[in-house]
Design a protein that fits this description.
eight-stranded mixed β-sheet, globular
Length: about 425
């Protein structure tokens, strides 16, 4: 394996509270943090004025394979992840059939190995077929490589099923990722309930649908001692509920998407489906609460919630098109523009939410640039300016609310296991 020297980069490693300009040497796929002077390496990367971080981790990606390969494949999704700076992604079980058995989890890992892009960690289904009625073969899924459990966008509405799931996965120290919504309150809904849903005459999705379910989930996590991760928090009161629960010692974590930090319910006045997401965009007050949750650590992780769909599925009427946008290739510049350029978060705080925090929740040995750690490394160019053009995405999905927006920052290089797997320069010239 070729040795790599990364010279003069700003190394940011929140796992070790490290932020300094230095060099890293990679030998046999492992990091040497103090290479010294006059070091020879097969490949030298000049990282002057660049940010060198642990390989980014996205905990919430839908890859669609098997069953909907017209939307995305494991090969195309992992290529998009690499271009977005991710060395590891966790994929949701919302495939056809769902990932509710050992063979399904092993299939994902095998296909990812064949693609040789980034690492892929399966998230197994909590219930059979993600129907929320009977627990899946959780033990077998663990043996097949699953590190967490979720029914993706399907809410586990049955409280007894959720309680038993938290008890069982808690014994194995594995989290349940839950989409916290009361199904009956959002049935047929298209957008946040408020002034604009009334103005536009669109069926509403009230904030209470989220906060009621968060309250139930936290209560069940508290009585069972299980590990709960709340996906895609969007409401001001939801953030406060999580904050109070953590103060009581409840094992609850949460994530937010970059697009929920930018866009509001009023954006759907265009009736453009790129603003149709689940949970929906909400109000300026909710966005402010999400940012405060990121700042004080109530919200641990930023995820893409990558939801790719084929072109024919996103060009129909608003009520007919599915919820969701792609996010793997826009997350880094969106976060830099929204959070770093405005001084809302420090680099250490942002990188923690993209590296060591998701690694700890997933229980994987990643997210650090410690000496002798596996060399999963992302190199960012914070000075780059780019206009988002979905036609250049490596993902099959093209729908994004960031289309044609000018954002700051981008991905320069991505190293996985000591191997240079992505370079922006080669992508541009190729």
């Amino acid at each position: 394996m070729a040795s790599i020297l990364i010279n003069n980069g700003r190394v940011i490693d929140p796992a070790n509270n490290r932020d300094e300009v230095t060099s890293l040497l990679i030998i046999e796929g492992r990091i040497q943090t103090n290479p010294g002077n006059n070091v020879h390496a097969d490949l030298v990367i000049d990282a002057t004025d660049k940010i060198v971080t642990p390989g980014l981790i996205d905990m919430r990606v839908s890859l669609r394979e098997p069953g909907s390969e017209e939307d995305e494949t494991i090969e195309s999704g992992t290529a998009a992840a690499l271009a977005g700076g991710f060395t590891t992604i966790a994929c949701m079980p919302d495939t056809e059939p769902p990932m509710d058995n050992r063979a399904a989890a092993e299939f994902v890992i095998l296909q990812a190995d064949r693609a040789r892009n980034c690492r892929v960690i399966p998230i197994g289904a909590v219930t059979k077929q993600c129907h929320g009625e009977e627990l899946a073969e959780i033990g077998q899924l663990l043996e097949g490589g699953a590190r967490a459990f979720s029914d993706a966008k399907q809410t586990i509405a049955n409280s007894e099923v959720m309680r038993r799931a938290l008890e069982y996965t808690g014994m194995m120290n594995r989290p349940i990722f839950h989409h916290a919504q009361v199904p009956e309150l959002v049935a047929d809904g298209l957008m946040h309930e408020g002034f604009y849903s009334t103005l536009l005459g669109l069926p509403p999705m009230p904030a209470a649908a989220e906060t009621i379910m968060i309250n139930r989930d936290i209560t069940l996590a508290e009585i069972t001692g299980g590990q709960l991760h709340l996906m895609g928090i969007t409401t001001e009161f939801g953030v406060e509920q999580i904050r109070r629960a953590r103060e009581r010692g409840v094992r609850v974590t949460a994530d937010v998407t970059p697009h929920h930090l930018y866009f509001k319910d009023e954006d759907l006045q265009s009736f453009h489906s790129k603003y149709k997401v689940n949970p929906p965009f909400r109000t300026a007050e909710d966005i402010q609460a999400l940012i405060e949750g990121l700042q004080d650590g109530t919200i641990d992780v930023i995820t893409s919630d990558h939801q790719p769909y084929a072109e024919e599925k996103i060009t129909c009427e608003l009520d007919q098109t599915p919820f969701g946008v792609v996010g793997l290739e826009t997350l880094v510049p969106a976060c830099i523009t929204r959070l770093i350029e405005t001084n809302l978060l420090s680099w250490l705080e942002l990188i923690a939410k993209l590296t060591i925090n998701p690694a700890r929740i997933l229980g994987i040995d990643a997210g650090t640039l410690s000496d002798n750690a596996v060399a999963d490394i992302t190199i960012l160019d914070p000075a780059m300016t780019q206009t988002i053009d979905p036609d250049n995405f490596l993902s099959k999905g093209r729908r994004t609310p960031f289309a044609n927006m000018e954002l700051k920052g981008g991905v320069e290089h991505v190293i996985v296991g000591g191997e240079l797997r992505f370079s922006a320069a080669s992508l541009t010239t190729g």
